[in-house]
């Protein structure tokens, strides 16, 4: 994989797959261009990979990288595992280098469509691969282990965070990188309508790093200032040790207006805390939610504002949403994903 990062959904997935394969008795290792020493075993430099008989290579594909050219040269069976690639046009004007890597990644994905077998991290990713000409693709969703997140809510830091927001206001939460495709700017506009036309006692909490688009963060800050919304909180990147679970516990609604998601793990994290989800129906989001949450077909801030108020105040509706979300979360239980991994490995062995 291009980067084996600790605080990253792809890195966590590679780690979970490696550890499960080892438990089953396979020899398994991560090879990467970027090693993160927060892992006890950060993997090996990708150039150290050596082909051997009866060996397969799973390539976590998410961006343009020199690792791609290396993988094309190996003699082993290669199973592309597609995590999706953000359309590069979202980053034009924000990060030219990243946009170029995204363009490269989308272009070079086609080099693997002749693979006899491939994986996708979501049904949305699978449909995209099939449209590109891949022949056989199975979905291996993310392992979503929530124990650490729940523990962070129970930690002293997590409890302090939850207490800080327990003032009766409606707390709208979104967790994800500050990036143009995530459309945090639309979340600010939604808060603006809601506070000024429906309920003035509300705030928006945005958690995520701006490392890939610092200029976009400046735009968000400027928009909040122009709209006179000091209730927009740009918290930055927050992990388990910083009490991430406390923010979920304090949330009234998880609001997602993103226009591109390959999967969106925070949707499931919100479900784990019984936080009703309202989300824009785009790309991978409806596939992740299934029959849970509320999906928006369009972004109308007047409709959204009234909907937020109904979900925040109608306890019967909230309970119905929570029940559906709990049911959906069961579909991603570690035991379910582990069994799917087993099936994928067995299929890989005969392709």
Listing every helix as H and every strand as E from the N terminus to the C terminus, the arrangement reads EHEEEEHEHEHEHHEHEHEHEHEHEHHH
Our count of domains comes out at 2
Mean pLDDT: 96
User: How much strand?
Assistant: 15-25%
Our count of helices gives: 14
Question: What does this protein look like?
Answer:
Helix 6 (about 155-165) packs parallel to helix 9. The protein has helices at about 10-25, 65-75, 95-110, 125-130, 145-155, 155-165, 185-200, 215-225, 245-250, 265-270, 285-290, 300-315, 315-330, 335-350; strands spanning about 5, 30, 35, 45, 55-60, 75-80, 120, 135-140, 170-175, 200-205, 230-235, 255, 275-280, 295. With about 350 residues, it is of the alpha/beta class. The strands form 4 sheets. A 6-stranded parallel beta sheet has the order 11-10-9-12-13-14, with helices on both faces. A 4-stranded parallel beta sheet has the order 5-6-7-8, sandwiched between helices. It has a two-stranded parallel sheet with strand order 1-3. The chain contains 14 helices and 14 strands. Helix 7 links the parallel strand 9 and strand 10. It folds into 2 domains: about 5-145 and about 335-350, Rossmann fold (3-Layer(aba) Sandwich), CATH 3.40.50; about 145-330, Glycogen Phosphorylase B (Rossmann fold).
């Amino acid at each position: 994989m291009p980067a084996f990062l600790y605080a990253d959904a792809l890195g966590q997935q590679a780690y979970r797959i490696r550890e499960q394969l080892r438990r089953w008795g396979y020899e398994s290792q991560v090879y990467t261009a970027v090693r993160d020493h927060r892992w006890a075993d950060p993997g090996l430099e990708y150039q150290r990979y050596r082909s051997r008989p009866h060996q397969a290579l799973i390539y976590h594909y998410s961006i343009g990288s020199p690792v791609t050219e290396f993988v094309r040269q190996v003699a082993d069976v290669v199973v592309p595992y597609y995590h999706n690639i953000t359309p590069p046009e979202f980053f034009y004007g924000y990060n030219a280098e990243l946009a170029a890597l995204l363009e490269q990644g989308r272009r070079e994905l086609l080099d693997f469509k002749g693979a006899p077998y491939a994986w996708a991290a979501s049904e949305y990713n699978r449909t995209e691969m099939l449209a590109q000409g891949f022949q056989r693709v199975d979905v291996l969703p993310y392992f979503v282990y929530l124990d650490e997140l729940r523990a962070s809510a129970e930690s002293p830091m997590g409890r302090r965070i939850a207490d800080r927001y327990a003032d009766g206001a409606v707390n709208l939460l979104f967790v994800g990188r500050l990036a143009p495709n995530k459309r945090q700017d639309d979340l600010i506009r939604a808060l603006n309508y809601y506070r000024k036309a429906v309920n003035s006692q509300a705030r928006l909490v945005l958690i995520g790093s701006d490392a890939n688009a610092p200029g976009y963060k400046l735009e968000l800050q400027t928009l909040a200032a122009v709209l006179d919304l000091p209730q927009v909180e740009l918290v930055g990147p927050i992990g388990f040790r910083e009490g991430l679970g406390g923010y979920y516990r304090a949330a009234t609604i998880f609001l997602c207006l993103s226009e591109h998601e390959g999967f969106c793990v925070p949707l499931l994290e919100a479900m784990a805390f019984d936080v009703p989800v309202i989300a824009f129906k785009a790309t991978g989001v409806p596939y992740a939610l299934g029959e849970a949450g509320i999906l928006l077909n369009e972004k109308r801030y007047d409709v959204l504002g009234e909907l937020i108020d109904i979900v925040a105040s109608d306890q019967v509706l909230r309970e119905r949403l929570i029940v559906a979300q709990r049911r959906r979360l069961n579909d991603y239980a570690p035991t379910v994903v582990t069994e799917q991994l087993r099936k994928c490995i067995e299929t890989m062995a005969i392709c």
